[in-house]
């Protein structure tokens, strides 16, 4: 008798179940990667054939801050990845204000839980504790495609996006690092400014204006830290301008299990059904 089903299942496994749910007249919120990308992108990045490509065009990319109006009343929502959510939120105001340079670099520090529950040597306590290591670097992390496509959509459409495929996309170098922490993500992004007429105050104003109607994003002057979003469904963002190198540097933090996964799924559920967006969600993290 359910009306909607949340799918927290692995990519590749999820699509057949979503197909059955949609065919049975249910709504679906998918936390896997099966419906986040156009078919060609999915098959390139995930190295497998998509079994139900006809559903891809019916899915809405569930980054609420950019797709809020599109999500309302839809039947299939593809919840973004944790790394891509944090990176996109940190870069979106720059794309909107035409401030992205030719080179876009994103360094992600991600907690061990972000790598999933599957067994692997790198996630053993003795391997992960007091250790930091890069993984899936130099164009090999799957969330790169989500970041590039979202930035392209912002540059083409502005703030209110549609889940459409665009061939012309900026190139993003996304390099994640596994850190000995249970949960949390920090995405530090760099791009060279197109103009000299920038400072911290101007950039902060751009970011505050962009997210002024988004309760699950906090823009602040102080640099964020992952502890502030531990068990919170909100992301925190700040931005700086390096006058010497002319680099714009953004800092975004999220809880990979909350705003990067379950919390964002609930946020999508609220928007789909026109409930209060923050219903059932937590703005504040657990401290200390």
What does this entry look like structurally?
This protein is α/β, with parallel strands linked by helices. The protein folds into 2 domains: 4-80 and 262-270, NAD(P)-binding Rossmann-like Domain (Rossmann fold); 82-255, Dihydrodipicolinate Reductase, domain 2 (2-Layer Sandwich), CATH 3.30.360. The chain has 8 helices and 11 strands. The protein has helices at 14-23, 39-46, 64-71, 82-96, 125-128, 144-157, 200-210, 258-272; strands at 4-7, 27-30, 60-61, 76-78, 104-110, 133-134, 172-178, 185-192, 217-219, 235-242, 247-254. A 7-stranded mixed sheet has the order 6-7-5-8-11-10-9. The chain has a 4-stranded parallel sheet with strand order 1-2-4-3, with helices on both faces. Strand 1 (4-7), helix 1 (14-23) and strand 2 form a beta-alpha-beta unit. The longest helix is centred in the N-terminal third of the chain and has 15 residues, at 82-96. The mean pLDDT is 96.
Brief write-up:
The chain is an alpha/beta fold and 288 residues long.
Number of helices: 8
Structural class category: alpha/beta
Gross morphology is globular
CATH C-level name of the largest domain = Alpha Beta
Strands across the major sheet, in which order?
6-7-5-8-11-10-9
Question: Helicity, in percent?
Answer: 25-40%
CATH superfamily of the largest domain: Dihydrodipicolinate Reductase, domain 2
Order of helices and strands: EHEHEHEHEHEHEEHEEEH
Overall radius of gyration: 18 Å
CATH architecture of the largest domain: 2-Layer Sandwich
Unreliably modeled segments: none
Task: Predict the CATH topology of the largest domain.
Answer: Dihydrodipicolinate Reductase, domain 2
Q: Overall mean pLDDT score?
A: 96
Content of β-strand: 15-25%
What does the main sheet amount to? 7 strands, mixed
Query: What is the terminal separation in angstroms?
Result: 41 Å
- What is the total domain count? 2
- Please count the beta strands (DSSP E, at least 2 residues each): 11
């Amino acid at each position: 008798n359910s009306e909607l089903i949340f799918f927290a299942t692995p990519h590749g496994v999820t699509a057949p179940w979503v197909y059955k749910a949609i065919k049975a007249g249910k709504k679906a919120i998918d936390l896997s990667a099966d419906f986040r990308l156009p078919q060609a992108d999915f098959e390139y990045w995930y190295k497998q054939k998509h079994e139900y490509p006809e559903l891809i065009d019916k899915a809405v990319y569930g980054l609420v801050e950019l797709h809020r109006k599109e999500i309302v009343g839809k039947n299939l929502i593809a919840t973004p990845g944790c790394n891509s959510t944090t990176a996109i939120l940190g870069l979106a105001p720059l794309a909107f204000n035409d401030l992205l340079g030719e080179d876009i670099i994103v360094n992600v520090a991600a907690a061990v839980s972000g790598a999933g529950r599957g067994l692997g040597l790198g996630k053993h306590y003795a391997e992960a504790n007091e250790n930091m290591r890069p993984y899936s670097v130099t164009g090999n992390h799957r969330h790169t495609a989500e970041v590039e496509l979202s930035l392209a959509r912002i540059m083409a459409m502005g703030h209110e996006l549609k889940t459409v495929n665009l061939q012309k996309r900026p190139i993003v170098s996304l390099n994640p690092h596994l850190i000995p922490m249970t949960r949390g993500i920090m995405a530090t992004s760099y791009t060279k400014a197109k103009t000299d007429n920038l400072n911290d105050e101007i950039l902060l104003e751009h970011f505050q204006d962009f997210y002024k109607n988004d309760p699950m994003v906090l823009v602040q002057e102080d640099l964020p830290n992952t502890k502030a979003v531990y068990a919170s469904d909100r992301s925190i963002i700040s931005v700086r301008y390096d006058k010497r190198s002319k680099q714009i540097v953004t800092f975004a933090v999220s809880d990979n299990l909350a705003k990067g996964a379950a919390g964002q799924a609930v946020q999508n559920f609220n928007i789909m059904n026109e409930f209060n967006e923050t219903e059932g969600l937590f703005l504040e993290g657990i401290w200390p």
